[in-house]
Amino acid sequence: MSSREEILALLRDNARYTTDDLARMTDTDEATVEETVAALEEEGVIKGYQAIVDYSKLEPEPVRAAVELNVTLDRETGYDDIAQRLAKFPEVKGLRLVSGDFDFALEVEGDSMSEVSRFISEKVAPVPEITQTVTHYVMESYKEHGVEFGDGHDDDRLSVSP
Amino acid sequence: MTFEASARVESVPPSGIRRFFELAEEYDDIISLGVGEPDFAPPWAARDAAIASLERGQTSYTANRGKRELREAIAAHAADAYDLSYDPDEEVLVTTGVSEGIDLAYRAFLDPGDAVAVAQPCYISYIPGATFAGAEVVDVPTRAADEFTLTRAALERSGAADAEMLVLCYPNNPTGATMTREELEPVAKFAREHDLLVLSDEVYADLTYEHEHASIATLPGMGERTVVFNGFSKAYAMTGLRLGYAMGPPEAITAMNRIHQYTMLSAPTTAQHAAIEALETCEGAVTEMAAQYDRRRQFVLSRFEEMGVDCFPASGAFYAFPECPWDDGDAFAEALLEDQRVAVVPGSVFGAGGEGNLRVSYATGLGQLREAMNRIEAFLS
User: Fold this and answer.
1) Stretch B348-368: mean pLDDT, rounded?
2) Chain B residues with CB-CB distance to A under 8 A?
3) Which of A87, B5, B48, B68 could lock onto B9 through a cystine, CB 3.0 to 4.6 A?
4) How large is the ipTM?
């Protein structure tokens, strides 16, 4: 792995590694790490850094839904046009064009179920190209961004062993 | 009538590591760099296969030598990864960890009074195992100056020429040293010249960072005189499942199996199911764990360098073996534990040549490792 790939892999694992950590782990210096990260950001490879949060520990707990969208296209309107329009809403946390039975997979977040429902019925469903919406409210989250929730793997090793 | 331990047992002192374990157990806030096993859980696919086998009730004994499917997978892996060619029916024996395998080899090939040359520092079972088999141990200390590789000079100096058997382990616990094919050649030549059997413990083979792992058994004239040991504890993080294997010429495996069939019957069945899955589908997980160890290795080496602690560039397993800043390694380790609550293991525990060094295990997450290195730095200043 090049140090660029290596640094990216490390940041994908833990975006809070310090420049010093990254330099030591990849056997480079801090200046190289800073340049590499700056380049990754500038090229748009790295889009941002966020915390992975267990929503069930928040008070009040935000409501999330996965929404399946079906659309019809015409001569003037393509997937990108519809996507751009939807992605602008701050309630939309994720938007992907997918293969299979529906076209877009939308992630929506709000303060309450009624807020999310209202958003879907008032902002999403009325978009002329959208022919169908199916909303799935998230009831429990077991794993987000590769991180398992729950008690995890306890370190039950002996403190000193051969 | 009382239970008095035999002279053989009496002649073996309790493991030095046990004392450090007990010292470390007195504190509940320590960061331990004294652990000789991975901090990862085994790949889920392997655990899942073990669970599924239990659900199906597959808990009978297996063939003495291990399930054939597993022996085939082991032989295929050895061929792919290390260019070792072994027949799964005649030349592979599945054991309860590498430790059982080493013990079988000692008892199968040594007569009372035979001499075993043991390259040291080494894993703590090699020397007592030889004693239990009634053999004499010839200490072959390796040196920091040679980056703890085994050299012809070290073999000559120690009188290994008169031994019947040579035991070596690369990548090494406790030093983290590895040996390239070129570095193994003079050792192989020495073994051929002096007609030594060779036990090569390669349980850390998949954790070799700077070069391809080379097995001494692949060198000319060595396959016929070498038993190679490997297992699932380190690369697959399956320590508690207790599964290893030995590969060697048919007559060697037959003799070892003669003891194994009476004393162990067969290695743990559940673990064998996990191991088949591990070999068949978990290569990616091994690569990922190795990549993480490698990053931590670089981190630790660079921190020691910064502190001015002399540490040769360990290139395998998950250990660094820095020189101890004090003359007395045991005293240093005790003081570090008491003062900074960081556990490391003094090299003296691992036999000749280890006295001046400390084993620092980096089988610990980076956050803990960073904190532990800061504490060591504080302790030194």
Assistant:
1) 96
2) 15, 17, 20-21, 24-25, 30, 32, 34-37, 39, 41, 123-125, 173, 291, 295-296, 298-299, 302-303, 343, 345, 366, 370
3) B5
4) 0.88
